[in-house]
Amino acid sequence: MAVMGIENTIGGDEALRLLLVSRLDPAYRLATCILRDASAAEDAVQEAALRAWRMRGGLRDPERVEAWFARIVVNVCRAELDRQGRRPRIRELDPVVSAYGGTELRDEVGRALARLTPDEQIVVALRFGRDLTIPEIAVQTGIREGTVKSRLHGAQDHLRAALEAERRAEEIRR
């Protein structure tokens, strides 16, 4: 039986299991991008898979399983960040920053990113770390495109201000 509506049947459960298994690698990359910790990302994906399995009756369209599961992964990562009082760091930006300015610039950008809210860091990680479009971010996070744009714009303003503050502080130290 195909996954039409993902009924709680043996065939439907097996089809969903196969769909989830096929999404584990992208989910792990997403969690790693947000949490910047391989072990925490593995735990988050495992928790997300368990939640997805428990919520399998809520998946109405099997063609949207990727976005549905990604949203669960993002929510698990956000909960983990809140639980630990940590902020996500964007490891995928490190090589880009390093290519243009080395360790000093990477550290400066890292400190500026740490000043963003977790929600801002998540959309920045998805946009620049995973190179997703605004509509794709909206689908994966479950927030409206306008909210994604607003958070990206706010994050850009906050990053600009944080980088300027870092540079002023550096000038004072010299």
Search tags:
single chain, 174 residues, mainly alpha, Rna Polymerase Sigma Factor, Chain: A, Arc Repressor Mutant, subunit A, 2 domains, 76% helix
What can you see in these coordinates?
The protein folds into two domains: about 10-85, Rna Polymerase Sigma Factor, Chain: A (Orthogonal Bundle), CATH 1.10.1740.10; about 90-174, Winged helix-like DNA-binding domain superfamily/Winged helix DNA-binding domain (Arc Repressor Mutant, subunit A, Orthogonal Bundle). Helices cover about 75% and strands about 0% of the residues. It is an all-alpha fold. It is built from eight helices and no strands. α2 packs across α3 (about 40-55), α6 packs across α8 (about 145-174) and α7 (about 135-140) crosses α8 (about 145-174).
